[in-house]
Design a protein that fits this description.
Layout (H helix, E strand, L loop, with lengths): L2 E5 L4 H12 L3 E6 L12 E4 L5 H7 L5 E4 L7 H4 L5 H22 L3 E7 L29 H20 L2 E7 L2 E2 L12 H11 L5 E5 L5 E2 L2 E2 H13 L6 E3 L5 E2 H12 L4 E5 L13 H7 L7 H27 L1
Parallel strand pairs: 1-2, 1-4, 2-3, 4-5, 5-6, 6-11, 7-10, 8-13
Antiparallel strand pairs: 9-12
Helix pairs in contact: 1-7, 4-5, 6-8, 6-10, 8-10
Length: 328
């Protein structure tokens, strides 16, 4: 039986990948700094530990055939684009990737999947919110809009270097705003869909919610199930990547907020305030994934938002109940 290691299994995407791999019949070891906050990934073995620790990584990769590397110091715009966490973001994520490759190679691991990000794409190609350019070949000349993006681009090259020099198999995907239930929804590291769902849930009909900037900045958002499907198809293919895994359904943040309000059946006012924004426009270009894998994501954004909204609604209710118990 193939033995697979999932780094970052206590996180949103990593936890879902553990479920998928176990459903396919693989033996799975999971590693993260913490247990999953919202679910229990059905790993055969779950190691709670720091992937920056060389000794821990050396132990974790023993007996492993394949590694899925999702672990990173990351979050939404409120974490990535303030500039306050740049040193930690670069140091922590780069260290995890260096350890994973170095000790993985020493242990005889033959295949690595690396989760990169659309944040690697040049800022100069994403100034027009209606016409962003995010084809895979547009990554160079490099000019990411954040240190998070620079680290992801460096690590892409790191994995490809190990592939060339050590003869291992590598697959690289660039994720575009993955969302869904069982993900971070509060605390400052949540991304736009979760943040807006929470704000709408917590606001009475006729009330007001805040949005950073003018709300005309555009993005595409991919539901978690399609992300997992795309990764599995990539890993089992002969294509190395990097390849976009994202939706082509581009919306403005104002449109995203309106969609969430429609799902909730609420009429709310949007108040635009200052805040970290990132690029003006970003959308997944899915021509390459369709060509190489014969597949591309297709689920409508609203479908995934409805499921995410219901889940966050439940989380808010649970959180409020716990507050009442604590106060009582």
């Amino acid at each position: 039986m193939k033995r697979i290691l999932v780094n970052g299994a206590g996180g949103f995407i990593g936890g879902q990948m553990v479920k998928r791999l176990k459903a396919e019949g693989y033996w799975v070891r999971a590693v993260d700094l913490k247990r999953h906050e919202f679910t229990v990934p059905p790993a055969d073995e779950f190691i709670v530990g720091d992937l920056r620790d060389q000794r821990l990584v050396a132990d974790a990769v023993e007996g492993i055939n394949e590694i899925y590397q999702f672990a990173a110091d990351m979050g939404g715009a409120g974490y990535i684009f303030t500039g306050e966490h740049d040193a930690d973001v670069m140091h922590n994520s780069a260290t995890i990737n260096l350890n994973t490759l170095h000790f993985g190679i020493k242990a005889g691991v033959r295949k690595f999947f690396y989760s990169s990000s659309a944040c690697i794409y040049p800022e100069y190609n994403q100034m027009d919110p209606l016409n962003p350019k995010c084809s895979e070949d547009s990554a160079y000349p490099a000019a990411p809009d954040s240190e998070y993006g620079w680290e992801k681009l460096f690590s892409e090259r790191l994995y490809l270097s190990y592939m060339r020099n050590y003869g291992v198999s590598v697959r690289i995907a660039r994720f575009h705003n993955i969302f869904g239930p069982n993900g971070t929804w509060t605390g400052g590291k949540e991304k736009a869909p979760a943040a807006l769902c929470r704000k709408v849930v917590e606001t009475e009909d006729g009330g007001e919610i805040d949005i950073w900037g003018d709300g005309k900045q555009t993005r595409s958002f991919l539901y978690i199930d399609e992300c997992i499907e795309g990764v599995r198809r990539l890993v089992e293919s002969e294509f190395i990547g990097p390849v976009n895994i994202g939706s082509e359904e581009m919306v403005s943040i104002n449109q995203l907020a309106e969609m969430v309000m429609q799902i909730a059946g609420k009429k709310l006012t949007i108040k635009h305030i200052s805040g970290p924004l990132g690029v003006r426009g970003r959308n997944s270009d899915n021509r390459l994934i369709a060509e190489k894998l014969g597949w591309k994501p297709s689920r409508p954004l609203r479908d995934g938002l409805e499921e995410t909204y219901r889940w966050i609604q439940e989380q808010v209710a649970i959180s409020r109940s716990m507050e009442l118990v604590t106060k009582g």
